């Protein structure tokens, strides 16, 4: 007969982690109470003297009485537990919680509510491709590249890297962060590229470049946050160009092959601008004669792909795109991402924002191998950072200045101007500086009205907004960039990330509701180390919360706060609430529960659900 499993010893060499031996040394078998009593009595009878036996018997009786009393108590507790209705228990929990809550300060309550909303947002699906999500694929290591910093930089201590970052106000987070590099020449960039950058007055890396370029060259996923106009475009394009160069040099691309990577932008204008930069930089390399020509495709709505068929007829290295057209091209298999390994999202917060999220996921599904993913923006609220972090592999966060903070090279002036006086005052305002000037309005009709008014007054103005045709938008940008037109009137959406030379003055005709948009708009001036002015009109129609965000932003940037803004009270301060920045939009004047960005996002989401229900979709 087989021996009882309890007694069986498994005779194999012991594993270091698992114990197959059931004969545990610490094992204490259960002995019933009656048996224990008998054992104790037996022990008692073995005592030699009568007095010893009497004393021990008394002790034993006391012990047994105590044990009986304890058991009876436990039985009673169990009985009441079973008999008490669940509702009563729930009521008690509720009362206990209410009492605890009453003890909490307003700050704690607000923090708890914020944490709950954040947790709800964070529970969204991971930003990974549908394929990866479905198959449960997740990579654990960053992409390997052959690049490494020069030996003398590799030999520096962590403390030296830390001091350098501190000098440039760079905050980093992540594992094994590549070192910051203060000179382009130490980044192992081809000489012809260095010369070209020099000819464009780009001689020393900006803070986001000196930490961001080595990070990306090292193959690391990254979240890059830096002020408007601080040179983010070079920080993400250069790594892609170098990667493409390496691949092309190893084995030249032929028709149907490529691209190596893609830069995704939220607007056609921004994509066009980035594309032009990539063309200039790759052109500079090819002119050198030592490097091959890299081919770049601009993939945006509103332009005919036929125009670019010459690019598709060759091997393709880089694609700069907006999401919609890119998905269309990938679905039509004009090219594939089968061998692509680099994805960068410019203005990533906008891109990940509700609405674009599914497009991004869809685009990721076309990648067939591990990729390096970079996210860049001037404003990157904590919500997006948290969400994005889960989608990247060992990401490095490079943050230059508080996410969402304004560029300190912009002098911010806020003026109270009555609605009906705005147009007339605008003319006066235009006298403050020489052109070029950009005027922003949140409303397309207002953009048209302002342009018409300025044209009537003899001001050379062009206008750009979402309802203009692609030709009209291109004409406006071209004539403004070339200096043929002095003033550009633009809707907020069209403004993000556009880099115009030496804008002297930004006039915000209608203050955007979301403070992030304000930061992007004033960021069209004060670029690449130059200073600029931003004048913003506010009045009774501006929501008080927006004014509060503005007040705090001005205070943070050390700007003058006009008296009418100074008088606006923060309700959170009155309630003793917290004055931290909103984790969703970065605004300093409100908490998450009344964030305008969240409201807008929810509205957009509901609208898209409605459209989908109607069989529409977007
Ligand atoms: N290292 C540098 N030194 C001087 N100028 C630079 C440097 N890097 C970039 N620039 C210039 O600074 C300007 C702004 O750069 P870029 O458009 O990349 O800024 P950005 O950070 O992307 O801004 P935004 O957030 O508004 O998109 C460009 O005209 C660019 O040529």
TrEMBL record:
GO terms for molecular function: ATP binding; hydrolase activity; RNA binding; RNA helicase activity; zinc ion binding. Residues 182-210 form the DEAD-box RNA helicase Q domain. It catalyses: ATP + H2O = ADP + phosphate + H(+). CDD domains: SF2_C_DEAD (cd18787). Residues 1-26, 44-87 are annotated as: Disordered. It comes from the Eukaryota. Keywords: ATP-binding, Helicase, Hydrolase, Metal-binding, Nucleotide-binding, RNA-binding, Zinc, Zinc-finger. Its EC number is 3.6.4.13. Residues 52-87 have a biased composition (Basic and acidic residues). Residues 409-572 form the Helicase C-terminal domain. One of its GO terms (cellular component) is cytoplasm. Residues 1-11 have a biased composition (Basic residues). InterPro entries: DEAD/DEAH_box_helicase_dom, Helicase_ATP-bd, Helicase_C-like, P-loop_NTPase, RNA_helicase_DEAD_Q_motif. Residues 213-398 form the Helicase ATP-binding domain. A motif (Q motif) lies at residues 182-210. This is RNA helicase. It comes from Suillus plorans.
């Amino acid at each position: 007969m087989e021996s009882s499993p309890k007694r069986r010893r498994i005779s194999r060499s012991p594993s270091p982690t698992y114990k197959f031996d059931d004969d545990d040394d610490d094992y204490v078998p259960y002995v019933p109470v009656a048996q224990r009593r008998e054992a104790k009595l037996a022990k008692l009878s073995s005592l030699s003297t009568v007095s010893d036996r009497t004393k021990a018997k008394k002790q034993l009786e006391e012990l047994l009485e105590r044990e009986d009393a304890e058991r009876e108590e436990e039985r009673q507790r169990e009985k009441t537990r079973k008999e008490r209705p669940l509702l009563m228990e729930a009521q008690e929990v509720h009362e206990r919680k209410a009492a605890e809550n009453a003890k909490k300060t307003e700050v704690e309550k607000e923090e708890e509510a914020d944490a709950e909303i954040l947790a709800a947002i964070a529970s969204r699906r991971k930003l990974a491709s549908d394929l990866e999500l479905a198959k449960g694929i997740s990579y654990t290591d960053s992409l390997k590249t052959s690049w490494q910093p020069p030996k003398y930089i590799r030999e520096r201590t962590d403390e030296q890297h830390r001091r350098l970052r501190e000098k440039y106000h760079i905050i980093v987070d992540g594992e094994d962060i590549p070192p910051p590099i203060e000179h382009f020449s130490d980044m192992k960039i081809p000489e012809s590229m260095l010369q070209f950058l020099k000819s464009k007055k780009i001689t020393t890396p900006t803070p986001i470049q000196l930490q961001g370029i080595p990070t990306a060259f090292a193959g690391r996923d990254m979240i890059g946050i830096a002020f408007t106009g601080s040179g983010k475009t070079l920080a993400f394009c250069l790594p892609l160009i170098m990667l493409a160069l390496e691949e092309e040099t190893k084995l030249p691309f032929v028709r149907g092959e490529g691209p190596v990577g893609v830069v995704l932008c939220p607007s056609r204008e921004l994509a066009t601008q980035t594309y032009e930069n990539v063309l200039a930089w790759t052109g500079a390399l090819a002119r050198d004669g030592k490097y091959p020509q890299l081919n770049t495709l601009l993939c945006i709505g509103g332009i005919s792909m036929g125009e670019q068929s010459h690019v598709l007829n060759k091997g393709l290295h880089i694609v700069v795109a907006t999401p919609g057209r890119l998905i269309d091209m990938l679905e039509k298999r004009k090219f594939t991402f089968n061998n692509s390994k680099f994805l960068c999202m410019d203005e990533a917060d906008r891109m990940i924002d509700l609405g674009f999220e599914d497009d991004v996921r869809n685009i990721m599904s076309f990648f067939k191998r591990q990729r390096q993913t970079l996210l860049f923006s001037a404003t990157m609220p904590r919500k997006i950072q948290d969400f994005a972090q889960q989608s990247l592999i060992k990401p490095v966060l490079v943050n230059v200045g508080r996410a969402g903070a304004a560029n300190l090279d912009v002098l911010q002036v806020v003026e109270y101007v009555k609605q009906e006086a705005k147009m007339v005052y605008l003319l006066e305002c235009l006298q403050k500086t020489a052109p070029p000037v950009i005027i922003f309005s949140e409303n397309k009709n207002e953009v048209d009205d302002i342009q018409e008014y300025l044209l009537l007054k003899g001001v050379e103005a062009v206008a750009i907004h979402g309802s203009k045709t692609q030709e009209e938008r291109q004409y406006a940008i071209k004539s403004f960039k070339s200096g043929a037109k002095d003033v550009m009137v633009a809707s907020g959406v069209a403004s993000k990330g556009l880099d115009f030379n030496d804008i002297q003055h930004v006039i915000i005709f209608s203050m955007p509701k979301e403070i992030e948009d304000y930061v992007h708009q004033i960021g069209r001036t004060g670029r690449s180390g130059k200073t600029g002015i931003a004048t913003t009109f506010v009045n009774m129609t501006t929501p008080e919360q927006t004014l509060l965000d503005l007040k705090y932003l001005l205070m943070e940037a050390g700007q003058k706060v006009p008296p009418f803004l100074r008088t606006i009270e923060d309700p959170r301060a009155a309630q003793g609430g917290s004055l931290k920045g909103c984790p969703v939009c970065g605004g300093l004047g409100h908490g998450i529960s009344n964030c305008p960005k969240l409201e807008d996002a929810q509205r957009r989401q509901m609208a898209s659900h409605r459209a989908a229900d109607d069989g529409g979709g977007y």
